[in-house]
Amino acid sequence: MTDPLTPLLSTVDGTAVAARRGDEDFLLTSGTTARGGALPVRSDTRFEIGSLTKTFTALLLAEMVARGEVGYDDPVERYLPRECAPRAPITLVRLATHSSGLPKLPPGLWRSALPAWFTNPYRAFTARDVLAAVPRARPRPGVRYSNFGVGLLGHLLARAAGCPFEELLTARVLRPLGLPDTGCAPAPQATGYWRGRPRPPWEIPGLPAAGALRSSARDMLRYLTAHLNPSATPLERALTEVTRPRVALPGGADHLCLVWNHRARPGHELLFHSGGTRGFTSFAGFSPRAGTALVALVNTGPTLRGTFIQRSYEALRTLATLAPA
């Protein structure tokens, strides 16, 4: 069983890999939480998970829809001040399927991001800046991955509930699923590195729903296991909703669910997503039909030539292929 997992471990970086196959859980760790004699990585070591945060935001949306508090087809302007309405009609589900037409980053971000591009490019961009960017954006038809879109979705859900995003996510998703290591607070966590240099903790105050969470391999495996068996959780309806294919991608075999990527394969399907900050890289995926799940976390930031995410995807595919029918 460990063969697909051990190639993901590093002797230099801090790495945590966890998997489920059938009724068995597997967890491997290597390295330390920081270079130079820090504590060894454990199952509860917290990593920045970057864009994997978006899958939690999607689950929060589905949970609030299940309660009747919002609707997938609600227009975003219902939850925005009048002066912040978008130029074209956008619904909540469009934000969660990257089909709103909004750009990847909100207008105005670049000016504040460039001085801190290699450390904390989002640090100076506030919630007020995000709302001000909505009427400035020019939506274009089609599917475009958008940090702006999912980050905006988090603001809209918080405004609908009258509660800050992190408090809402904790109450509705993290606590019901039993995820004590998961949250936006930076401490405690492993030290992140980019090209061998330590990076400061990631700050994304304006778009927390797009990339602010930290989590552990232990929590992430529990989170993925909930997606494999929704009926064993308090969020059965929401967990079922987030895995339903909604938007077809070019080629026909791949779809977008609520944030999750869905790829059909003979005998099984794969749902997956990845994340990255300046100091961390993450991957999570699962196959409901094969009863398998995999999370891989490392405390080095992604690079153009990095292979961690691709190797993690291949390990997930191998697990799903090897799973008993």
UniProtKB/TrEMBL annotation:
Residue span, Beta-lactamase-related domain: 13-305
Domain of life, source organism: Bacteria
Q: Which InterPro entries match?
A: AmpC-like (IPR050491), Beta-lactam-related (IPR001466), Beta-lactam/transpept-like (IPR012338)
| SUPFAM superfamilies assigned to the protein according to its UniProt record, in alphabetical order | beta-lactamase/transpeptidase-like
Pfam families associated with the record:
Beta-lactamase
Q: Which PANTHER family match?
A: D-ALANYL-D-ALANINE CARBOXYPEPTIDASE, D-ALANYL-D-ALANINE-CARBOXYPEPTIDASE/ENDOPEPTIDASE AMPH
Q: State the name under which the record lists this protein.
A: Penicillin-binding protein
Q: Which organism is it from?
A: Saccharothrix coeruleofusca
